[in-house]
Amino acid sequence: MTPTIKALWIVYDPACGLCCMVRDWILAQPSLVTVNLIAAGSPETQERFPQLPPGELAVVSDTGDVWLGDRAWIICLWALRDYRKWSVRLSSPMLLPLARQAFSAVSRNRTAFSQMLQYRTDEQVHWDLRQIMVPRCETPQA
Fold first, then answer.
1. From the DSSP assignment, how many helices (H) and strands (E) are in the chain?
2. What's the whole-number average pLDDT of the chain?
3. What is the pLDDT of residues 44-88, one digit of tens each?
4. What CA–CA distance (Å, rounded) separates 62 from 104?
């Protein structure tokens, strides 16, 4: 029997503008599981998740699952009531590499993103997402 996920810890880069914008957006959304957002490098993160690589969005579940990078962005959507269905579609092999762009589009304008997905093939959505510019996270090197 697979354990049911009841809580997620989203470890974000507090020096990244996109990560902070997304943090605030996630906190404003109704969720289907408990969502905890914690800053990478914080004492809580270092104590709770010392194994996580620095400088990359990470999501850890209460069942011990860990998602990094593109998959972490998808799991963030999966946790949200209004976006779970989208997380399933965006996890397709063609769209998964563009998860960061999709998340940026969703958090900026749900209506436009909904129209982008509606009645469009994955190839068409792939092309649209490739056009979205996402700022890079700038993690200072120690």
1. 7, 4
2. 81
3. 999 999 989 877 789 999 999 999 888 888 899 899 999 898 888
4. 26
Contact (Cβ atoms closer than 8 angstroms) between residue 62 and residue 6 = yes
Annotated domain spans of the chain: 7-130
Token pair of 22, please? 């997304």
Angstrom distances, CA of residue 50 to CA of 2, 40, 142: 25, 10, 17
Of 43, 71, 54, the residue nearest 16 (C-alpha): 54
Tokens of residue 48, six digits: 């709770």
Specify the pLDDT at position 142.
Answer: 46
Question: Where residue 108 falls among pLDDT bands split at 50, 70, 90?
Answer: low
- Strands (E) in the chain, as ranges, are 7-12, 34-39, 58-61, 66-68
* Burial tier of 51 (Cβ tally within 10 Å: 0-12, 13-18, 19+): exposed
- CATH domain 7-130 topology: Glutaredoxin (3.40.30)
Tokens of 132: 């979205």
Q: What is the pTM of this model?
A: 0.73
